[in-house]
Automatic annotation (TrEMBL):
It comes from Candidatus Accumulibacter phosphatis. It comes from the Bacteria. This is TIGR04255 family protein. InterPro entries: CHP04255.
Length: 265
C-alpha cells in the first residue's frame, strides 16, 4: 500500500487486535468509551449481531441455536473513523485512510484504553486489511490497472464476476516470525460495495467512492495477519503491525500496474 497518494484507491481499511476473552466486557465498556470520547471519538452505539450456532455433525448434530453477540461502535463525530469493541477484540477502521503513521497508532490507542479498564493478559491475533477500488475512467479498462496474471479467463460470453485469490506464508515482525497474507482481486460490473465480512458499520464513505450505479470495476482486497500468544508490549505490537503493513505494500505493488500507480499518485 503506497503512502501519501493524492488519489489513493483505499476506500476502507481496518487494523485489529484479538485479546484474551473478557466475558464481562459490558461492565467495563463505559470506562473504555469515556477514555476514547475524550480522545476524539464521542459517538457511541451498541450493536447486536444475531447468528446461528450449529454443534455436532451428522446424526449427532444438535438443533441450531440462535445466539447474540454484542459489540460497541465508538466513532468520530464526522463518522470517518472509529473503533469496534467486542468481548475479545478491538478494531480501528476508517473510510478516509491517509497513511500508516496515522492509522496503526489509533489501534494502539484503543487497545491501551481497553487494557486500562480490564487489565488484559495477552494478544492472540494482529491483522490489517485494505480494500482498494480500481475505477477506470471512461476511456480506460480494468486491465490497465492490474498486472497480466489478474486479467482472468476470456471467451465469447459476458463475464458477470471474477475472483483471483492467493494465500502466502510471510516472514513478519518481532513477536511472531510467520504470518498469513490473503490477496484477492474481485472484478464485477456493479455498484462499489464491501465483502459481507467487512462492512464499515457507523462510518460514511468518502464522496468519490459513494458509487451506487453499476459500473465495471475491481476491488483489491488484502488481508495480512499473525496468530499466536503475544505479550502485551505496545511497542512490539506497533512494530509487528508495521511489519505486516510493509508486506501489504509489497503485494500492492505486485498487483497494480505502472499506469495505476501513475493515476493514483
Amino acid at each position: 500500500m503506497s503512502e501519501m497518494m493524492s488519489n489513493a484507491p483505499v476506500y476502507y481499511a481496518l487494523v485489529q487486535a484479538h485479546f484474551n476473552p473478557v466475558a464481562a466486557m459490558a461492565k467495563y465498556v463505559d470506562q473504555v468509551q469515556d477514555r476514547l470520547r475524550r480522545e476524539g471519538y464521542p459517538l457511541f452505539e451498541p450493536q447486536q449481531i444475531t447468528h446461528l450456532v450449529v454443534s455436532g455433525a451428522g446424526p449427532d448434530q444438535a438443533e441450531p441455536q440462535i445466539a447474540h453477540t454484542v459489540s460497541w461502535l465508538i466513532t468520530r463525530s464526522d463518522r470517518t473513523a472509529g473503533f469496534i469493541l467486542g468481548p475479545s477484540a478491538i478494531t480501528f477502521h476508517t473510510t478516509h485512510y491517509k497513511t500508516r503513521e496515522q492509522f496503526i497508532p489509533e489501534l494502539l490507542r484503543g487497545l491501551k484504553a481497553v487494557h486500562e479498564g480490564v487489565a488484559l493478559d495477552h494478544v492472540s491475533r494482529l491483522g490489517l486489511r485494505y480494500l482498494d477500488a480500481v475505477l477506470p475512467q471512461a476511456h480506460e479498462t480494468v486491465e490497465q490497472y492490474l498486472v497480466d496474471g489478474l486479467h482472468g479467463v476470456w471467451f465469447d460470453a459476458a463475464r458477470k464476476y471474477a475472483l483471483s485469490e492467493s494465500v502466502f506464508e510471510t516472514s513478519t515482525g518481532p513477536l511472531l516470525p510467520k504470518g498469513t497474507l490473503v490477496a484477492r482481486v474481485h472484478r464485477m460490473s456493479a455498484p462499489l460495495s464491501f465483502p459481507p465480512d467487512m462492512v464499515p458499520n457507523g462510518l460514511l464513505p468518502m464522496s468519490r467512492f459513494d458509487i451506487k450505479e453499476a459500473k465495471p470495476h475491481a476491488v483489491i482486497d488484502t488481508d495480512h495477519y499473525v496468530e499466536g500468544h503475544m505479550p502485551l508490549d505496545f511497542d512490539k505490537i506497533g512494530e509487528q503491525l508495521t511489519a505486516l503493513h510493509a508486506t501489504i505494500t509489497d503485494v500492492f505493488k505486485a498487483t497494480a500496474t505502472d499506469h495505476a500507480r501513475t493515476v493514483w499518485a
